[in-house]
Design brief:
Blueprint: H1 4-8, H2 18-25, E1 29-33, E2 38-40, E3 48-63, E4 66-73, E5 78-79, H3 81-86, E6 93-106, H4 107-116, H5 119-137, E7 147-151, H6 155-166, E8 170-174, E9 193-197, H7 207-214, E10 220-224, H8 231-239, E11 242-246, H9 252-257, E12 262-265, H10 269-280, E13 284-288, H11 297-307, E14 314-318, H12 320-329, H13 334-348, E15 366-368, H14 371-380, E16 393-399, E17 405-408, H15 413-420, E18 425-427, E19 430-432, E20 435-439, H16 448-453, E21 458-462, H17 468-478, H18 486-505, E22 511-513, H19 528-550
Parallel strand pairs: 7-10, 7-11, 8-9, 8-10, 11-12, 13-14, 13-21, 14-16, 15-18, 21-22
Antiparallel strand pairs: 1-6, 2-6, 3-4, 3-5, 3-6, 16-17, 16-20, 19-20
């Protein structure tokens, strides 16, 4: 049974008289639940209410297997009262976010207390009114990485980048990880990061209670933990929403101990800023469409995004999108990619040379074998695998036998690019892992859904696939009066198919960049500079919208900061 003076420290009870507190204390029972435990289940009968002494819980409902978070509740909050008062089933489930100490009041005891002490009913009503007002402002919340256990000397920089990105205060709580790290005296003043040292006073037993206090004041808490196994380290990883290991040290012990999973990242600024976006759910990805020569516009899009400081955390590309996306993901500069594009006409044009055309005579499944094309991309991509890339990359191809979409995310990048650009009838299907693969535009010309499936929060798409109106306009502009060659016919057929596919297959997109390239044909490689310019113009028009999505949106302060 909790003592009266302990109840007085809980905000819910702070205004009640000593007489009422004595009556309540005699009837309360204490229960403890660990992180992840379910305290009450939706639709179960309710026979008691709970008051949170320490820790944190989330109130959730489930529909169609999807969890919706309605509220996070910390010390002094209560739940379960409505089903007790009204005799109804539980309207939501309650699960533990941070280890909780609960004070439990059974239905019969609450009924007696309300009869004897009406002041309790007034206290409950006030809290319900406050909670309702907060719920109306933010009815549904998403799962967040509010508490992050961090290993590595770069943790303070990660905290600073997170504060800059969100515009919200971040608490850097040192519980043993920054013993050998010296912070400049002006560091805390110049950032929105509050620094708290607790290595000498925090242990595995009192950490949950201390955390339950600070999460009532901060949206973001970074726990700097020791780079080795201790009781406090283990408890911190258990309570954290995610564990991040910064640096090159071995992290096998972390993988075995972090129950909610862990991320391992380099400690350079580019990766640290990406980690901050991942924590804050502001990862940016771009889907690059197929389009052959019109795909040059993707270079202009990359240039404008880079010039305006727009980060790219993931790329998904099909055909031409795979070509230029892979070069960018591999760390090639815009100047390098431009040089690559300008030389395509000379390297692959029938009129200027056959250096990379290894013809299949007689043709079987394509005019060109593609071995020399593969070698060319191996050189440009420095034989990199997907694991070697600077930016995570996904490349789309299609299985010509089964019609399935094939997503490359491992192995040699050049093999994936060669597969994704294998235009039917022109380039022989690539044979990879027992599959015959062709141009990914046949199944997914603008792979934005893939980015959503991989957890990207802000999805950009650059599509150079012309609509039917664009094609009609191009015909009116040219009026050549003669039929295209066989390759032009194949490319045109693919173009028509892709424009129809994207009507039903294109996934969610926050900002769609549509370069005005409908006037150009699929083989007009000589128009490279014009097409790149069209990409720049289209991307520049969208920059204000992209910056708006990335801008800090600080939420109202939770409470006075300590």
């Amino acid at each position: 049974m909790p003592a009266k003076h302990n109840l007085r420290n809980i905000p819910f009870f702070s205004e009640l008289t000593d007489e009422v507190l004595d009556a309540i204390a005699q009837r309360l029972q204490r229960e403890h639940y660990h992180k992840g435990a379910s305290i009450v289940q939706e639709d179960d009968p309710g026979d008691c209410m709970y008051i949170i002494e320490t820790g944190q819980v989330k109130v959730v409902t489930e529909k169609g297997g999807q969890e919706k978070i309605h509220a996070y509740l910390g010390p002094g909050n209560f739940f379960g009262e409505m089903s007790v008062l009204l005799g109804e089933k539980r309207s939501a489930s309650v699960r533990v976010v941070l280890d909780v100490e609960l004070l439990v009041l059974r239905k019969d005891d609450l009924t007696d207390l309300l009869k004897q002490h009406p002041l309790i009913a007034l206290t409950i009503t006030r809290e319900l009114s406050r909670r309702l007002g907060r719920t109306l402002q933010t009815p549904i919340q998403s799962e967040e990485f509010n508490i992050v256990a961090c290993i590595g000397a770069a943790t303070p920089r990660l905290a600073r980048y997170l504060a800059e990105l969100t515009g919200e205060p971040v608490l850097l709580f040192d519980i043993g990880g920054l013993a050998n790290v010296t912070l400049e005296s002006t560091w805390a003043r110049d950032t929105r990061v509050d620094f708290l040292r607790g290595a000498d006073s925090i242990n595995a037993e009192n950490l949950p209670g201390r955390l339950s206090q600070v999460v009532e004041r901060y949206y973001w808490v970074l726990l700097a933990i020791a780079p080795y196994e201790t009781p406090v380290t283990i408890k911190a990883m258990e309570l954290a929403d995610i564990t991040i290991h910064l640096g090159s040290a071995d992290d096998s012990w972390v993988r075995n101990l972090a129950p909610k999973g862990h991320w391992h990242a380099a400690d350079n600024d580019i990766v640290l800023r990406r980690m901050a976006r991942k924590i804050a759910k502001k990862l940016v990805g771009i889907a690059l469409s197929s389009g052959n020569a019109r795909g040059f516009a993707h270079i202009g899009v990359f240039k404008v995004l880079q010039d305006n400081g727009i980060p790219i955390d993931m790329i998904a590309g099909t055909s031409a999108g795979a070509v230029f996306g892979s070069l960018y993901a591999a760390g090639r500069s815009i100047e390098d990619i431009l040089y690559f594009a300008v030389n395509i006409q000379r390297q692959f044009n029938f009129l200027t040379g056959f250096r990379y055309w290894d013809f299949r005579i007689p043709p079987r499944s394509g005019i060109i074998k593609g071995d020399m094309v593969l070698k060319y991309f191996q050189e440009w991509l420095a034989n990199k695998s997907f694991d070697d890339l600077d930016i995570p990359l996904y490349i789309i191809a299609a299985d010509v036998i089964s019609g399935e979409e094939v997503v490359f995310d491992r192995g040699p990048v050049a093999d994936a690019v060669r597969s994704s650009m294998s235009v039917i009838g022109v380039l022989e299907p690539a044979y990879v892992a027992g599959r015959h693969l062709i141009d990914g535009g046949a199944v997914n010309p603008v792979p934005s859904q893939l980015l959503a499936d991989k957890g990207i929060d802000i999805i950009l798409a650059s599509s150079v696939i012309p609509s039917l109106d664009d094609r009609l306009n191009r015909r009116e502009l040219k009026r050549e009066g003669r039929a295209p060659n066989v390759i032009g016919i194949v490319m045109g057929a693919m173009e028509i198919m892709e424009s129809e596919i994207i009507k039903t297959r294109m996934g969610p997109v926050d900002v769609l960049i549509n370069p005005d390239v409908g006037r150009y044909g699929t083989l007009e490689y000589d128009k490279v500079h014009e097409i790149i310019q069209r990409g720049e113009e289209a991307a520049q028009r969208k920059i204000p919208f992209i910056k708006q999505l990335l801008a800090p949106r600080p939420r109202p302060p939770l409470a006075a900061r300590t």
